[in-house]
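Run log // design_07
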Protein backbone atom coordinates (compact mmCIF):
# COMPACT_ATOMS: atom_id res chain seq x y z
CA UNK A 1 0.00 0.00 0.00
CA UNK A 2 1.57 3.30 -1.05
CA UNK A 3 1.72 6.60 0.87
CA UNK A 4 -0.98 8.25 -1.25
CA UNK A 5 -3.44 5.44 -0.51
CA UNK A 6 -2.78 5.77 3.23
CA UNK A 7 -3.43 9.50 3.14
CA UNK A 8 -6.63 8.97 1.15
CA UNK A 9 -7.90 6.36 3.62
CA UNK A 10 -7.03 8.59 6.56
CA UNK A 11 -9.22 11.34 5.11
CA UNK A 12 -12.07 8.84 5.02
CA UNK A 13 -12.11 8.77 8.84
CA UNK A 14 -12.96 12.48 9.09
CA UNK A 15 -16.66 11.87 8.43
CA UNK A 16 -16.80 9.56 11.46
CA UNK A 17 -15.25 12.07 13.89
CA UNK A 18 -17.61 14.94 14.72
CA UNK A 19 -15.84 15.84 17.97
CA UNK A 20 -12.09 15.10 17.76
CA UNK A 21 -11.21 16.53 21.19
CA UNK A 22 -13.02 16.93 24.52
CA UNK A 23 -11.53 18.59 27.63
CA UNK A 24 -12.19 17.76 31.28
CA UNK A 25 -13.02 14.11 30.67
CA UNK A 26 -12.63 11.80 33.67
CA UNK A 27 -11.40 8.25 33.13
CA UNK A 28 -12.36 5.47 35.55
CA UNK A 29 -10.36 2.22 35.32
CA UNK A 30 -10.22 -0.76 37.67
CA UNK A 31 -7.80 -0.37 40.59
CA UNK A 32 -6.46 3.03 39.50
CA UNK A 33 -7.42 6.49 40.66
CA UNK A 34 -9.75 8.50 38.38
CA UNK A 35 -7.79 10.65 35.93
CA UNK A 36 -9.02 13.86 34.36
CA UNK A 37 -7.65 14.92 31.01
CA UNK A 38 -8.25 15.63 27.35
CA UNK A 39 -9.93 12.94 25.28
CA UNK A 40 -8.89 12.72 21.63
CA UNK A 41 -10.61 10.64 18.96
CA UNK A 42 -8.41 9.65 16.00
CA UNK A 43 -9.09 7.35 13.08
CA UNK A 44 -7.95 4.29 15.01
CA UNK A 45 -7.43 5.28 18.66
CA UNK A 46 -9.18 6.69 21.65
CA UNK A 47 -6.59 8.67 23.62
CA UNK A 48 -6.88 10.35 27.00
CA UNK A 49 -3.94 12.43 28.18
CA UNK A 50 -3.91 13.88 31.69
CA UNK A 51 -3.30 17.61 31.91
CA UNK A 52 -1.85 17.22 35.41
CA UNK A 53 1.82 18.06 35.72
CA UNK A 54 3.79 14.81 35.38
CA UNK A 55 5.69 15.42 38.63
CA UNK A 56 2.46 15.73 40.61
CA UNK A 57 0.87 12.60 39.22
CA UNK A 58 1.05 9.32 41.06
CA UNK A 59 2.67 6.36 39.36
CA UNK A 60 -0.64 4.72 38.50
CA UNK A 61 -1.91 7.94 36.91
CA UNK A 62 1.01 8.53 34.55
CA UNK A 63 -0.09 6.12 31.89
CA UNK A 64 -2.36 7.54 29.22
CA UNK A 65 -5.36 5.73 27.85
CA UNK A 66 -4.32 4.62 24.38
CA UNK A 67 -6.97 2.25 23.09
CA UNK A 68 -7.70 0.91 19.63
CA UNK A 69 -11.31 1.42 18.60
CA UNK A 70 -11.37 -2.18 17.41
CA UNK A 71 -10.74 -3.28 21.01
CA UNK A 72 -14.18 -1.98 22.01
CA UNK A 73 -16.88 -4.64 21.89
CA UNK A 74 -19.86 -2.51 22.89
CA UNK A 75 -20.70 0.68 24.77
CA UNK A 76 -23.43 2.15 26.95
CA UNK A 77 -24.51 5.77 27.27
CA UNK A 78 -26.06 7.30 30.34
CA UNK A 79 -26.93 10.93 31.02
CA UNK A 80 -27.41 12.72 34.32
CA UNK A 81 -28.08 16.40 33.86
CA UNK A 82 -25.45 17.92 31.55
CA UNK A 83 -22.96 15.07 32.07
CA UNK A 84 -22.68 12.02 29.82
CA UNK A 85 -21.35 8.73 31.17
CA UNK A 86 -19.84 6.48 28.52
CA UNK A 87 -19.06 2.89 29.52
CA UNK A 88 -16.81 0.91 27.17
CA UNK A 89 -16.86 -2.89 27.23
CA UNK A 90 -13.70 -4.29 25.65
CA UNK A 91 -12.89 -7.59 24.00
CA UNK A 92 -10.27 -8.35 26.65
CA UNK A 93 -13.01 -8.09 29.33
CA UNK A 94 -11.87 -4.63 30.51
CA UNK A 95 -14.68 -2.20 31.39
CA UNK A 96 -13.90 1.52 31.66
CA UNK A 97 -16.02 4.61 32.14
CA UNK A 98 -15.59 8.09 30.67
CA UNK A 99 -17.36 11.03 32.31
CA UNK A 100 -17.89 13.61 29.55
CA UNK A 101 -19.09 17.06 30.68
CA UNK A 102 -21.33 17.70 27.67
CA UNK A 103 -24.16 15.49 26.42
CA UNK A 104 -23.71 16.36 22.74
CA UNK A 105 -19.97 15.69 22.89
CA UNK A 106 -20.66 12.38 24.64
CA UNK A 107 -23.06 11.35 21.87
CA UNK A 108 -20.54 12.34 19.20
CA UNK A 109 -17.72 10.40 20.84
CA UNK A 110 -19.96 7.34 21.24
CA UNK A 111 -21.01 7.53 17.59
CA UNK A 112 -17.39 7.77 16.46
CA UNK A 113 -16.35 4.74 18.51
CA UNK A 114 -19.26 2.66 17.24
CA UNK A 115 -18.43 3.41 13.62
CA UNK A 116 -14.65 3.26 13.86
CA UNK A 117 -14.71 -0.03 15.79
CA UNK A 118 -16.50 -1.76 12.92
CA UNK A 119 -14.92 -0.45 9.72
CA UNK A 120 -16.16 -2.34 6.70
CA UNK A 121 -12.82 -2.36 4.86
CA UNK A 122 -9.99 -4.51 6.21
CA UNK A 123 -7.36 -2.23 4.67
CA UNK A 124 -8.68 0.70 6.70
CA UNK A 125 -7.91 -1.04 10.00
CA UNK A 126 -4.92 0.06 12.06
CA UNK A 127 -2.46 -2.75 11.14
CA UNK A 128 -2.38 -1.33 7.60
CA UNK A 129 -1.40 2.09 8.97
CA UNK A 130 0.95 1.01 11.75
CA UNK A 131 4.63 1.60 11.01
CA UNK A 132 7.04 0.06 13.50
CA UNK A 133 9.89 2.18 14.84
CA UNK A 134 11.73 -0.63 16.63
CA UNK A 135 14.75 -2.43 15.20
CA UNK A 136 13.72 -5.62 13.42
CA UNK A 137 15.75 -8.66 14.39
CA UNK A 138 13.84 -10.90 11.95
CA UNK A 139 10.75 -10.84 9.75
CA UNK A 140 8.00 -12.72 11.57
CA UNK A 141 6.16 -13.33 8.31
CA UNK A 142 8.88 -15.73 7.10
CA UNK A 143 10.03 -17.06 10.48
CA UNK A 144 7.89 -20.21 10.35
CA UNK A 145 7.60 -21.20 6.72
CA UNK A 146 6.50 -24.77 5.84
CA UNK A 147 9.90 -25.45 4.27
CA UNK A 148 11.74 -24.78 7.54
CA UNK A 149 9.18 -26.74 9.54
CA UNK A 150 9.65 -29.77 7.24
CA UNK A 151 13.39 -29.88 8.00
CA UNK A 152 12.54 -30.35 11.70
CA UNK A 153 10.86 -33.69 10.91
CA UNK A 154 14.13 -35.36 9.83
CA UNK A 155 12.17 -38.04 8.01
CA UNK A 156 12.51 -39.41 4.50
CA UNK A 157 8.91 -40.68 4.50
CA UNK A 158 7.22 -37.29 4.15
CA UNK A 159 7.37 -34.51 1.60
CA UNK A 160 6.16 -30.99 1.02
CA UNK A 161 3.41 -30.72 -1.60
CA UNK A 162 2.50 -27.50 -3.42
CA UNK A 163 -0.63 -28.99 -4.94
CA UNK A 164 -2.59 -26.14 -3.34
CA UNK A 165 -0.18 -23.36 -4.41
CA UNK A 166 -3.01 -21.44 -6.13
CA UNK A 167 -5.54 -22.27 -3.40
CA UNK A 168 -7.78 -23.97 -5.97
CA UNK A 169 -7.79 -27.32 -4.17
CA UNK A 170 -8.79 -25.78 -0.81
CA UNK A 171 -9.16 -22.07 -0.15
CA UNK A 172 -8.69 -22.64 3.60
CA UNK A 173 -5.51 -24.74 3.40
CA UNK A 174 -2.01 -23.23 3.06
CA UNK A 175 -0.12 -23.30 -0.25
CA UNK A 176 2.25 -25.99 1.06
CA UNK A 177 1.34 -29.06 3.11
CA UNK A 178 3.22 -32.11 4.41
CA UNK A 179 2.03 -35.45 3.02
CA UNK A 180 3.38 -39.03 2.66
CA UNK A 181 6.23 -39.17 0.17
CA UNK A 182 4.68 -42.15 -1.68
CA UNK A 183 1.49 -40.22 -2.53
CA UNK A 184 1.50 -38.09 -5.69
CA UNK A 185 -0.36 -34.83 -6.24
CA UNK A 186 -3.03 -36.43 -8.46
CA UNK A 187 -4.00 -38.66 -5.55
CA UNK A 188 -4.15 -35.59 -3.31
CA UNK A 189 -6.47 -33.82 -5.74
CA UNK A 190 -8.86 -36.78 -5.79
CA UNK A 191 -8.78 -37.07 -1.99
CA UNK A 192 -9.44 -33.33 -1.66
CA UNK A 193 -12.55 -33.66 -3.84
CA UNK A 194 -13.82 -36.24 -1.33
CA UNK A 195 -13.26 -34.04 1.75
CA UNK A 196 -15.34 -31.08 2.92
CA UNK A 197 -13.77 -27.84 1.72
CA UNK A 198 -11.00 -29.79 0.01
CA UNK A 199 -9.23 -30.33 3.35
CA UNK A 200 -7.61 -33.73 2.70
CA UNK A 201 -5.52 -35.45 5.41
CA UNK A 202 -2.17 -33.71 6.07
CA UNK A 203 0.54 -34.11 8.70
CA UNK A 204 0.44 -32.11 11.93
CA UNK A 205 3.00 -33.99 14.03
CA UNK A 206 5.47 -36.85 13.64
CA UNK A 207 6.64 -38.73 16.73
CA UNK A 208 10.44 -38.72 16.86
CA UNK A 209 10.67 -42.10 18.55
CA UNK A 210 8.58 -44.48 16.47
CA UNK A 211 7.33 -42.37 13.56
CA UNK A 212 3.62 -42.39 14.41
CA UNK A 213 1.74 -39.38 13.07
CA UNK A 214 -1.02 -36.96 13.99
CA UNK A 215 -3.01 -36.04 10.88
CA UNK A 216 -5.76 -33.50 10.40
CA UNK A 217 -8.53 -33.11 7.81
CA UNK A 218 -12.21 -32.32 7.40
CA UNK A 219 -15.06 -34.84 7.22
CA UNK A 220 -15.31 -37.16 4.21
CA UNK A 221 -18.22 -36.49 1.85
CA UNK A 222 -19.64 -39.99 1.95
CA UNK A 223 -23.23 -38.80 1.80
CA UNK A 224 -26.37 -40.84 2.24
CA UNK A 225 -25.13 -43.52 -0.18
CA UNK A 226 -21.86 -44.12 1.70
CA UNK A 227 -19.63 -43.16 -1.20
CA UNK A 228 -15.97 -44.11 -1.07
CA UNK A 229 -12.78 -42.63 -2.49
CA UNK A 230 -9.92 -45.04 -3.10
CA UNK A 231 -7.41 -42.20 -3.36
CA UNK A 232 -8.40 -40.99 0.10
CA UNK A 233 -8.04 -44.53 1.42
CA UNK A 234 -4.61 -44.83 -0.23
CA UNK A 235 -3.51 -41.51 1.28
CA UNK A 236 -4.46 -42.51 4.82
CA UNK A 237 -2.89 -45.96 4.53
CA UNK A 238 0.33 -44.43 3.21
CA UNK A 239 0.45 -42.21 6.29
CA UNK A 240 0.28 -45.30 8.50
CA UNK A 241 3.05 -47.33 6.95
CA UNK A 242 3.15 -51.07 6.33
CA UNK A 243 1.45 -53.22 8.96
CA UNK A 244 0.45 -50.34 11.23
CA UNK A 245 -2.96 -49.31 12.46
CA UNK A 246 -4.50 -46.01 13.42
CA UNK A 247 -7.49 -44.29 14.95
CA UNK A 248 -9.82 -41.73 13.43
CA UNK A 249 -10.94 -39.43 16.24
CA UNK A 250 -14.14 -37.72 15.16
CA UNK A 251 -14.87 -34.71 17.39
CA UNK A 252 -18.60 -35.00 16.71
CA UNK A 253 -21.03 -37.31 18.41
CA UNK A 254 -21.99 -40.45 16.52
CA UNK A 255 -25.50 -39.01 16.04
CA UNK A 256 -24.20 -35.73 14.58
CA UNK A 257 -21.74 -37.49 12.31
CA UNK A 258 -24.52 -39.76 11.04
CA UNK A 259 -26.87 -36.81 10.55
CA UNK A 260 -24.20 -35.09 8.45
CA UNK A 261 -24.59 -37.81 5.81
CA UNK A 262 -27.98 -36.42 4.85
CA UNK A 263 -26.25 -33.12 4.00
CA UNK A 264 -23.52 -34.74 1.94
CA UNK A 265 -21.01 -35.17 4.76
CA UNK A 266 -20.29 -38.22 6.85
CA UNK A 267 -17.51 -40.29 8.34
CA UNK A 268 -14.94 -42.95 7.41
CA UNK A 269 -16.68 -46.30 6.91
CA UNK A 270 -14.47 -48.92 8.56
CA UNK A 271 -14.95 -51.52 5.83
CA UNK A 272 -13.30 -49.05 3.43
CA UNK A 273 -10.56 -48.17 5.92
CA UNK A 274 -9.73 -51.54 7.52
CA UNK A 275 -6.46 -50.29 9.04
CA UNK A 276 -8.32 -47.54 10.88
CA UNK A 277 -10.74 -47.66 13.77
CA UNK A 278 -13.17 -44.75 14.28
CA UNK A 279 -13.80 -43.26 17.73
CA UNK A 280 -16.21 -40.43 18.50
CA UNK A 281 -15.08 -37.87 21.10
CA UNK A 282 -17.59 -35.04 20.85
CA UNK A 283 -16.41 -31.51 21.59
CA UNK A 284 -18.60 -28.43 21.49
CA UNK A 285 -18.78 -26.04 18.54
CA UNK A 286 -17.89 -22.35 18.67
CA UNK A 287 -21.49 -21.21 19.20
CA UNK A 288 -21.79 -23.18 22.43
CA UNK A 289 -18.40 -21.89 23.58
CA UNK A 290 -19.51 -18.29 23.02
CA UNK A 291 -22.59 -18.75 25.21
CA UNK A 292 -20.53 -20.47 27.89
CA UNK A 293 -17.88 -17.73 27.98
CA UNK A 294 -20.55 -15.04 28.13
CA UNK A 295 -22.04 -16.69 31.24
CA UNK A 296 -18.59 -16.98 32.80
CA UNK A 297 -17.71 -13.31 32.26
CA UNK A 298 -21.15 -12.25 33.45
CA UNK A 299 -20.50 -14.11 36.70
CA UNK A 300 -17.02 -12.58 36.99
CA UNK A 301 -18.38 -9.06 36.57
CA UNK A 302 -21.20 -9.49 39.09
CA UNK A 303 -19.72 -8.48 42.44
CA UNK A 304 -23.16 -7.95 43.99
CA UNK A 305 -23.91 -11.64 44.55
CA UNK A 306 -20.76 -13.44 45.67
CA UNK A 307 -22.72 -16.19 47.45
CA UNK A 308 -23.71 -17.68 44.09
CA UNK A 309 -20.26 -17.37 42.52
CA UNK A 310 -19.42 -21.08 42.55
CA UNK A 311 -22.81 -22.13 41.24
CA UNK A 312 -22.62 -19.56 38.44
CA UNK A 313 -19.09 -20.65 37.57
CA UNK A 314 -20.32 -24.23 37.32
CA UNK A 315 -23.43 -23.23 35.36
CA UNK A 316 -21.32 -21.47 32.74
CA UNK A 317 -19.85 -24.84 31.74
CA UNK A 318 -16.55 -23.26 30.71
CA UNK A 319 -14.30 -25.44 32.84
CA UNK A 320 -16.24 -28.43 31.55
CA UNK A 321 -15.18 -27.49 28.00
CA UNK A 322 -11.59 -27.15 29.23
CA UNK A 323 -11.77 -30.62 30.82
CA UNK A 324 -13.23 -32.32 27.73
CA UNK A 325 -10.69 -30.76 25.37
CA UNK A 326 -7.78 -31.77 27.59
CA UNK A 327 -9.22 -35.28 27.82
CA UNK A 328 -9.24 -35.71 24.04
CA UNK A 329 -5.77 -34.19 23.66
CA UNK A 330 -4.42 -36.61 26.28
CA UNK A 331 -6.06 -39.53 24.48
CA UNK A 332 -4.37 -38.52 21.23
CA UNK A 333 -1.00 -38.12 22.96
CA UNK A 334 -1.36 -41.51 24.66
CA UNK A 335 -2.23 -43.30 21.41
CA UNK A 336 0.75 -41.76 19.62
CA UNK A 337 3.35 -42.01 22.39
CA UNK A 338 2.48 -45.10 24.42
CA UNK A 339 0.44 -47.25 22.04
CA UNK A 340 2.28 -46.39 18.79
CA UNK A 341 -0.90 -45.61 16.86
CA UNK A 342 -1.22 -42.86 14.28
CA UNK A 343 -4.22 -40.56 14.62
CA UNK A 344 -6.46 -38.70 12.17
CA UNK A 345 -8.48 -35.90 13.78
CA UNK A 346 -11.44 -34.12 12.25
CA UNK A 347 -14.91 -32.81 12.97
CA UNK A 348 -16.95 -31.19 10.24
CA UNK A 349 -14.80 -28.46 8.70
CA UNK A 350 -11.49 -29.22 10.39
CA UNK A 351 -10.48 -25.69 11.29
CA UNK A 352 -11.96 -25.14 14.77
CA UNK A 353 -11.93 -28.11 17.14
CA UNK A 354 -9.34 -29.95 15.06
CA UNK A 355 -6.47 -27.47 15.68
CA UNK A 356 -7.44 -27.33 19.36
CA UNK A 357 -6.76 -31.06 19.68
CA UNK A 358 -3.72 -31.30 17.38
CA UNK A 359 -2.05 -28.33 19.09
CA UNK A 360 -2.62 -29.45 22.66
CA UNK A 361 -1.46 -32.98 21.88
CA UNK A 362 1.78 -31.56 20.50
CA UNK A 363 2.35 -29.42 23.61
CA UNK A 364 1.91 -32.53 25.75
CA UNK A 365 4.27 -34.58 23.58
CA UNK A 366 6.88 -32.15 22.28
CA UNK A 367 9.08 -30.07 24.63
CA UNK A 368 9.90 -27.70 21.75
CA UNK A 369 6.25 -26.58 21.70
CA UNK A 370 6.65 -25.53 25.32
CA UNK A 371 9.22 -22.85 24.40
CA UNK A 372 8.33 -19.35 23.24
CA UNK A 373 9.48 -19.87 19.69
CA UNK A 374 8.01 -23.36 19.61
CA UNK A 375 4.57 -22.13 20.66
CA UNK A 376 4.73 -19.35 18.07
CA UNK A 377 5.59 -21.92 15.39
CA UNK A 378 2.75 -24.16 16.56
CA UNK A 379 0.19 -21.35 16.43
CA UNK A 380 1.46 -20.31 13.01
CA UNK A 381 1.39 -23.86 11.64
CA UNK A 382 -1.80 -25.28 13.14
CA UNK A 383 -3.95 -22.16 13.45
CA UNK A 384 -2.89 -19.38 11.12
CA UNK A 385 -1.59 -21.35 8.14
CA UNK A 386 -4.03 -24.14 9.04
CA UNK A 387 -6.99 -21.93 8.22
CA UNK A 388 -8.65 -21.16 11.54
CA UNK A 389 -11.03 -18.27 10.70
CA UNK A 390 -9.67 -15.68 13.15
CA UNK A 391 -11.43 -12.79 11.39
CA UNK A 392 -14.81 -14.47 11.92
CA UNK A 393 -14.31 -16.10 15.33
CA UNK A 394 -12.60 -13.09 16.95
CA UNK A 395 -14.64 -10.32 15.32
CA UNK A 396 -16.48 -9.71 18.60
CA UNK A 397 -16.25 -10.68 22.25
CA UNK A 398 -18.84 -11.58 24.86
CA UNK A 399 -20.12 -8.02 25.35
CA UNK A 400 -21.27 -7.56 21.76
CA UNK A 401 -25.02 -6.95 21.54
CA UNK A 402 -25.52 -7.23 17.78
CA UNK A 403 -25.91 -10.31 15.60
CA UNK A 404 -22.67 -12.23 15.23
CA UNK A 405 -23.24 -15.63 13.60
CA UNK A 406 -19.67 -16.87 13.31
CA UNK A 407 -18.13 -15.63 16.55
CA UNK A 408 -16.73 -18.02 19.16
CA UNK A 409 -13.74 -18.25 21.56
CA UNK A 410 -12.21 -21.36 19.98
CA UNK A 411 -8.64 -20.03 20.19
CA UNK A 412 -9.13 -18.70 23.71
CA UNK A 413 -10.22 -22.16 24.91
CA UNK A 414 -6.99 -23.57 23.48
CA UNK A 415 -4.94 -20.90 25.31
CA UNK A 416 -6.84 -21.67 28.52
CA UNK A 417 -5.90 -25.35 28.19
CA UNK A 418 -2.25 -24.38 27.64
CA UNK A 419 -2.48 -22.32 30.83
CA UNK A 420 -3.87 -25.35 32.68
CA UNK A 421 -0.84 -27.35 31.55
CA UNK A 422 1.39 -24.46 32.59
CA UNK A 423 -0.15 -24.49 36.07
CA UNK A 424 0.50 -28.19 36.52
CA UNK A 425 4.01 -28.16 35.01
CA UNK A 426 5.26 -24.69 35.88
CA UNK A 427 8.94 -25.54 35.32
CA UNK A 428 8.39 -27.14 31.89
CA UNK A 429 7.37 -23.98 30.01
CA UNK A 430 9.81 -21.31 28.87
CA UNK A 431 7.08 -18.65 28.77
CA UNK A 432 4.98 -17.22 31.58
CA UNK A 433 1.21 -16.79 31.64
CA UNK A 434 1.50 -13.15 30.55
CA UNK A 435 2.72 -14.48 27.20
CA UNK A 436 -0.51 -16.44 26.76
CA UNK A 437 -2.61 -13.44 27.77
CA UNK A 438 -0.73 -11.21 25.34
CA UNK A 439 -1.48 -13.61 22.47
CA UNK A 440 -5.16 -13.67 23.49
CA UNK A 441 -5.36 -9.86 23.39
CA UNK A 442 -3.70 -9.62 19.98
CA UNK A 443 -6.01 -12.26 18.50
CA UNK A 444 -8.96 -9.91 19.12
CA UNK A 445 -7.41 -6.47 18.50
CA UNK A 446 -3.90 -5.57 17.48
CA UNK A 447 -1.62 -3.19 15.63
CA UNK A 448 -0.09 -6.25 13.99
CA UNK A 449 -1.46 -8.27 11.09
CA UNK A 450 -0.77 -11.79 12.33
CA UNK A 451 -4.34 -12.69 13.29
CA UNK A 452 -6.13 -10.85 10.49
CA UNK A 453 -8.17 -12.70 7.82
CA UNK A 454 -9.56 -16.22 7.89
CA UNK A 455 -6.93 -18.11 5.89
CA UNK A 456 -3.71 -17.83 3.92
CA UNK A 457 -5.53 -17.23 0.65
CA UNK A 458 -7.21 -14.10 2.05
CA UNK A 459 -3.91 -12.89 3.52
CA UNK A 460 -2.18 -13.10 0.18
CA UNK A 461 -5.06 -11.33 -1.53
CA UNK A 462 -4.61 -8.22 0.64
CA UNK A 463 -0.78 -8.63 0.68
CA UNK A 464 -0.76 -8.80 4.45
CA UNK A 465 2.95 -9.62 4.78
CA UNK A 466 3.89 -6.54 2.73
CA UNK A 467 1.41 -4.10 4.23
CA UNK A 468 1.47 -5.02 7.94
CA UNK A 469 3.94 -6.03 10.65
CA UNK A 470 3.94 -9.51 12.16
CA UNK A 471 3.40 -9.90 15.90
CA UNK A 472 6.34 -12.31 15.91
CA UNK A 473 8.60 -9.56 14.49
CA UNK A 474 7.79 -7.47 17.54
CA UNK A 475 7.89 -10.33 20.02
CA UNK A 476 11.14 -12.01 19.03
CA UNK A 477 13.45 -9.28 20.29
CA UNK A 478 15.45 -9.83 23.47
CA UNK A 479 14.10 -6.70 25.19
CA UNK A 480 10.51 -7.84 24.68
CA UNK A 481 11.04 -11.56 25.23
CA UNK A 482 12.54 -10.83 28.63
CA UNK A 483 9.10 -9.82 29.95
CA UNK A 484 7.59 -13.17 29.01
CA UNK A 485 10.26 -15.56 30.27
CA UNK A 486 9.31 -17.99 33.02
CA UNK A 487 11.92 -17.67 35.80
CA UNK A 488 11.17 -21.25 36.94
CA UNK A 489 11.84 -22.82 33.53
CA UNK A 490 14.06 -25.89 33.33
CA UNK A 491 14.14 -27.88 30.11
CA UNK A 492 12.02 -31.03 30.37
CA UNK A 493 12.52 -33.36 27.40
CA UNK A 494 9.80 -35.74 28.55
CA UNK A 495 6.09 -35.98 27.85
CA UNK A 496 3.88 -34.15 30.35
CA UNK A 497 0.74 -35.99 31.44
CA UNK A 498 -1.73 -33.57 33.02
CA UNK A 499 -4.41 -34.39 35.55
CA UNK A 500 -7.79 -33.66 33.99
CA UNK A 501 -10.12 -34.39 36.89
CA UNK A 502 -12.38 -31.40 37.66
CA UNK A 503 -10.61 -30.71 40.96
CA UNK A 504 -7.30 -30.39 39.07
CA UNK A 505 -8.54 -27.52 36.89
CA UNK A 506 -8.56 -23.85 37.85
CA UNK A 507 -10.13 -20.66 36.58
CA UNK A 508 -7.63 -18.61 34.59
CA UNK A 509 -8.22 -15.63 36.84
CA UNK A 510 -5.46 -13.43 35.42
CA UNK A 511 -7.53 -13.37 32.20
CA UNK A 512 -11.18 -13.67 33.22
CA UNK A 513 -10.80 -11.76 36.50
CA UNK A 514 -7.91 -9.57 35.37
CA UNK A 515 -9.88 -6.36 35.85
CA UNK A 516 -11.96 -7.54 38.83
CA UNK A 517 -9.27 -8.57 41.31
CA UNK A 518 -6.55 -6.24 42.58
CA UNK A 519 -3.37 -7.26 40.70
CA UNK A 520 -1.01 -5.84 43.37
CA UNK A 521 -0.74 -9.00 45.56
CA UNK A 522 0.02 -11.21 42.54
CA UNK A 523 2.59 -8.73 41.25
CA UNK A 524 4.20 -8.59 44.68
CA UNK A 525 4.49 -12.40 44.83
CA UNK A 526 6.12 -12.61 41.42
CA UNK A 527 8.37 -9.72 42.32
CA UNK A 528 9.53 -11.68 45.38
CA UNK A 529 10.06 -14.80 43.24
CA UNK A 530 12.21 -12.85 40.79
CA UNK A 531 14.22 -11.34 43.65
CA UNK A 532 14.86 -14.82 45.08
CA UNK A 533 15.85 -16.15 41.65
CA UNK A 534 18.26 -13.23 41.18
CA UNK A 535 19.76 -13.75 44.65
CA UNK A 536 20.17 -17.45 43.90
CA UNK A 537 21.89 -16.66 40.59
CA UNK A 538 24.27 -14.22 42.28
CA UNK A 539 25.01 -16.70 45.09
CA UNK A 540 25.85 -19.45 42.56
CA UNK A 541 28.18 -17.12 40.70
CA UNK A 542 29.86 -16.23 43.98
CA UNK A 543 30.25 -19.91 44.89
CA UNK A 544 31.88 -20.63 41.52
CA UNK A 545 34.19 -17.66 41.98
CA UNK A 546 35.22 -18.84 45.47
CA UNK A 547 35.84 -22.38 44.17
CA UNK A 548 38.19 -21.00 41.52
CA UNK A 549 40.03 -18.93 44.12
CA UNK A 550 40.30 -21.97 46.42
CA UNK A 551 41.68 -24.11 43.58
CA UNK A 552 44.29 -21.46 42.78
CA UNK A 553 45.33 -21.17 46.46
CA UNK A 554 45.62 -24.98 46.76
CA UNK A 555 47.79 -25.10 43.64
CA UNK A 556 50.01 -22.33 44.97
CA UNK A 557 50.30 -24.01 48.40
CA UNK A 558 51.35 -27.33 46.79
CA UNK A 559 53.97 -25.58 44.67
CA UNK A 560 55.44 -24.07 47.85
CA UNK A 561 55.29 -27.39 49.66
CA UNK A 562 52.89 -26.14 52.29
CA UNK A 563 50.43 -28.97 51.63
CA UNK A 564 50.76 -32.36 50.02
CA UNK A 565 48.99 -33.59 46.92
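design_07 sequence
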Amino acid sequence: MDEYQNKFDAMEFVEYIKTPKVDKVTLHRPYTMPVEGTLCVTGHHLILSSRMDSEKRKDDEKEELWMLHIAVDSLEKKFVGPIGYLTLYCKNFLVIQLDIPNVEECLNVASSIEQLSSLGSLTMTYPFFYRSTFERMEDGWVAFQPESELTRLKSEDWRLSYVNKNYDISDTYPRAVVVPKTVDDDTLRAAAAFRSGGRFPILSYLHKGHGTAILRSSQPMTGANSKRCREDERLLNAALGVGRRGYVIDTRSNANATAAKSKGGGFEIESHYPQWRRVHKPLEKYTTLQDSLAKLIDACKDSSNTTKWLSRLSASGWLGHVKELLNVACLVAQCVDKDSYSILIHGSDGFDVTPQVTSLAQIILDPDCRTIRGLEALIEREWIQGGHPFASRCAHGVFYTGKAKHVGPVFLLFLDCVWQLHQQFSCSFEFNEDFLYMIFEHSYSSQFGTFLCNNESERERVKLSQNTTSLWTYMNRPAILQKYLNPLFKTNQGVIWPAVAPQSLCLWESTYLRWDIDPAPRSAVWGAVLDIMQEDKEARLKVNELRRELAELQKEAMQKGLIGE
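The radius of gyration is 27 Å.
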